[in-house]
């Protein structure tokens, strides 16, 4: 396995992984624009795992100074590993590397939001030493503000 910073050439592979994670097709043109902006912005770092020349995992980070911490914090924005390669340590290694990348970028903490329905993912983060200290609230600003939680929406 090769772990490295993503490049512009990885856009379609990262898109496919995130669509699979979200269980829906995202608009590729919008995704590509955001991805290209992030690849060129030092506030973001997308770590990919490559096996035999194919990207099989992506972990996207954002670094930001936060007033309520008075520190620089890292947030995991997206984290997906191909179904075929799960449960063999790739996610664990990618998460471990993200901790080091955050430290190397001067961050004092790393955070991740995770849908309440992703119980296996919760267990993974806890097993890897993360803590569930926060609640996250959201409101849909376009369309219906549906109150039911569902993956793939």
Structure description:
- 31% of the residues lie in helices and 26% in strands.
- The chain has four helices and five strands, in the order βααβββαβα.
- Strand 3 (54-66) and strand 4 (71-81) form a beta hairpin.
- The longest helix has 15 residues, at 90-104.
Strand and helix layout:
Blueprint: E1 2-5, H1 11-22, H2 28-39, E2 44-51, E3 54-66, E4 71-81, H3 90-104, E5 109-112, H4 119-127
Parallel strand pairs: 4-5
Antiparallel strand pairs: 1-2, 2-3, 3-4
Properties at a glance:
153 residues; alpha+beta; five-stranded mixed beta sheet; 4 helices
Question: Short description, anyone?
Answer:
The protein is built from 4 helices and 5 strands, in the order βααβββαβα.
Helical content stands at 25-40%
SSE arrangement, N to C: EHHEEEHEH
Low-confidence stretches: none
- Overall mean pLDDT: 92
Distance N terminus to C terminus? 32 Å
């Amino acid at each position: 396995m090769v772990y490295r910073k993503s490049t512009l050439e990885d856009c379609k592979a990262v898109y496919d992984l995130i669509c699979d994670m979200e269980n829906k097709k995202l608009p590729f043109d919008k995704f590509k624009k955001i991805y290209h902006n992030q690849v060129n912005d030092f506030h973001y770092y997308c770590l990919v795992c490559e096996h035999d020349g194919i990207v099989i995992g992506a972990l996207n980070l954002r670094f930001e100074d936060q007033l309520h911490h008075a520190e620089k914090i890292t947030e995991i924005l997206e984290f997906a590993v191909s179904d075929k390669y799960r449960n063999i340590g790739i996610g664990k290694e990618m998460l471990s590397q993200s901790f080091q990348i955050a430290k190397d970028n001067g961050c004092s903490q790393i955070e991740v939001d995770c849908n309440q329905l992703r119980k296996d993912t919760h267990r993974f983060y806890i097993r890897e030493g993360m803590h569930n200290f926060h609640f996250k609230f959201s409101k849909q600003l376009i369309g219906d503000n549906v109150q039911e939680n569902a993956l793939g929406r």
